[in-house]
Amino acid sequence: ARSNLMASHLFRGLARNGPLWCRTPSTRWKRSISLTTTLRGIPAVKLTMPALSPTMEVGKIVKWHKKEGEAFSAGDALCDIETDKATLSMDALDDGVMAKILVEEGTDNIEISSLIALTVEEGEDYTQVEVPTDFGAGKAEAPQSVDRKGRQPESVAAAASRMIEPTSLPLSPSVKRLIAEHHLDASKISPSGIHGRLLKGDVLSYLSGEQSELAPPLRTDDASVPAQLPAPPVPLPKPPPAVSLSSVSPQFEDIPNSSMRRTIAKRLVQAKSTIPHTYAAVDCEMDNVLSLRREWKADKKVTLSVNDFVVKAVAVALRLVPSVNANWTHSGPQFLQDVDVSVAVATATGLITPIVRGADKLTVAEISSAIRMLASRARDGKLQPQEFQGGSFCISNLGMYGVTNFSAVVNPPQVCILAVGSTQRVPSTRNGITNITTVTLSCDARLINEQTAGDFLAAFKRCIENPSAGGLLY
């Protein structure tokens, strides 16, 4: 009864005050220690790889702007991330301290939402940050495979030696004929071919150096005919020494593939394999455009390119033929209200298409200024996502490289892309010599049929050949 009473008091104390005291085997009372944040580790805020573009699947950390233990404020750049389109900065959403960098600079192929760093609140001891136990899991070495009978697979060296055993390799017809004619044992001839293959030269060398292996001459049944002695062997030239394959292998250099080039390759394969392409081309007279360029340069001191006029003519043509100003989505065609023209720009890491927003409402001079700014930012890798995501039509111009005409690949979800060639001087019955540029329209046949493509090219031709009447001057 006394023990039951003591136990009742003990349980009531535990229920009222919590598990503060415990009885040790040595019958001494000691205070139990609860796990504090210092012993457990400071809880941290996880930084994960963000999706900085709709098509981004993996990223690369180019540079960390904050070091471990360095404080930052909301809006500060934490690191630079190379996406499939450009190099963008990851900004802080709140104040804090960089506690632990888990993924170093230069690490590539980091999947979206993967843990890359840990931060703590200001005032916390960042050195006591608690690293998640599951970080880095899944990197263990794969277990060695076994066959259905539970046996370990043979080593690569053992398999290779078994494969190159001379008796297991077939002999060529010429080698078989020599062995049969001279009654030779193939196992006594040293092979010199690749993977231990017996060559014709090996048999000839054996015949010239080892006459004891020759079979005795055949005896005739007629005793009156003397047996013919074998003719003395004729020395044969030795086969040329085997050339090592490593000495003739071509020299090459492995270049790491960037995220942008991987994405370009993936999207090109997707575009050519899933989009039914149709093509239409037209020749445009550029005399009026070239004359207008010279006038603006002389009078207004404004330097415009032919591509600036092309972008404006495309924007006007899209207003005249709005069915081309569209995207193809999973649910079907999507006709757009704004005319946003993408212009292909070549960079060191690949091709990117910054967008001239509202190109139909801009003058040629404003379009020229916008293209220069976007091209410069693209080559420096400083484009923001809104500057290259979207667009309703794309232009690819190789005229400055002397390419007369070519066909471009449709850039999904857009349904058309215009390939512009160089300006060529050709004879003309009307003006003697005329400047001609060939443009080729690549279309998604799921939405753009041949008639629609012809209507758009006709509208573009009217605009580019007559800038004043086509609406290119305003």
Task: Give the helix/strand layout.
Layout: H1 2-17, E1 21-23, E2 29-31, H2 37-40, E3 45-48, E4 58-64, E5 71-72, E6 77-82, E7 87-91, E8 96-101, E9 110-111, E10 115-120, H3 156-163, H4 173-182, H5 200-209, H6 245-248, H7 259-274, E11 277-285, H8 287-300, H9 306-320, E12 326-329, E13 332-335, E14 341-343, E15 345-347, E16 350-352, E17 355-356, H10 364-379, E18 393-397, E19 416-428, E20 432-444, H11 450-465
Parallel strand pairs: 14-18, 18-19
Antiparallel strand pairs: 1-2, 3-10, 4-6, 4-9, 5-8, 6-7, 8-10, 11-20, 12-13, 14-17, 15-16, 19-20
Helix pairs in contact: 9-10, 9-11
Task: Give a verbal description of the structure.
The chain is of the alpha+beta class and 474 residues long. 27% of the residues lie in helices and 22% in strands. It has helices at residues 2-17, 37-40, 156-163, 173-182, 200-209, 245-248, 259-274, 287-300, 306-320, 364-379, 450-465; strands spanning 21-23, 29-31, 45-48, 58-64, 71-72, 77-82, 87-91, 96-101, 110-111, 115-120, 277-285, 326-329, 332-335, 341-343, 345-347, 350-352, 355-356, 393-397, 416-428, 432-444. The strands form six sheets. It has a six-stranded mixed beta sheet with strand order 11-20-19-18-14-17, with helices on one face. Strands 3-10-8-5 form a four-stranded antiparallel beta sheet, with no helix packed on it. Strands 7-6-4-9 form a four-stranded antiparallel beta sheet, with no helix packed on it. Strand 19 (416-428) and strand 20 (432-444) form a beta hairpin. Helix 9 crosses helix 10 (364-379). Mean pLDDT is 78; it is low at 1-39, 137-167 and 211-225.
